[in-house]
Specification:
The protein has 157 residues and is mainly α. It has five helices and no strands.
Length: 157
Amino acid sequence: MDRQRDLFARTLQDLYHIEQELEDLQSELAESATDEDLEEYYMAHSERTTEQIGRLEPIFDAVEIEVEPGVADDAALSGLRTEREELVQDTRDPVVGDLVDAELGRAIERLEITKLETLLELADRMELPNEIVDPLERTRAEAENGLEELEELTATA
């Protein structure tokens, strides 16, 4: 990558893909949760994820990058999902299963936050307008709140 704009485009595409994958994963996590509070968290988070996807889509056009929203391979996310699938297969205790799923949720939130921090740093360096920065900041705040909420839920589980 030769330019900050290229890195911005790649990171935005990665984040968009993570959000899409997370949107699909939320219902699976809600179904497998044995803790009612965790189930409610995953269902509510699914709605927020859908809103975040809708918030990210206009940024592709606003930045005028040659990358479209869509599927992008993310090795970190793929690895997290594979690890979860392997652990869930070996888990017999439902409480342990909830903790495995919560670990995945926390890891994905942290991955989102990292991508958003990179995007915001690049946006600052590139002096991008508020129409791009504000949705990224809002999404980062939601991801941080989601992580905190999930940590609280699993501390009591």
